[in-house]
Design goal:
This protein is α+β, with helices and mostly antiparallel strands. Helices cover 35% and strands 32% of the residues.
Amino acid sequence: METEVDLRIFRPLLIPRRGEIIAWASTILTWLVWMALARQESPLAPFFIGLGIVLLLSAALISLGNWVDRRTKICVDDEGIEYSNGLRRLRLRWDEIVKIQVNPGTWGKWVQVFSSQPHFSFRIVGEVRYKGEVKGRMGFEEGEEILRLLVFHCHLHIADHPGDEVYYTR
């Protein structure tokens, strides 16, 4: 017997923006030094030019990642599941999902949800540790609940269990 699912909206934990701030501050400082040296007509070392470009690209990618994380959500209802992240929106009915793969990761398990064409993935909450101390948490805190709802409503079962990976299929 299937139970009705009210609309449930899940959002990932947001990581602190400290890394993004440090990346942009480093980029701005490097570019300010670069401009000051250029005004004095001092030659710039190719390494310094490369550093400025790498820092700019890194800061931009970190900002994009944070922007996407802040817009990511998974909505579950009677009809199926919807995944959106600001760059992509995907709606799958329960019967369209053919396989779920759960892979272990350093900072939480990765869940990949497959249909005949589109797919999406999300991270079950994990901890970032440094020297044994928890520095942050990332992923969906209710990730196990999302996985349970997917397996139940799609009528999937464990098909293979090689090592730490788990595959659910029809």
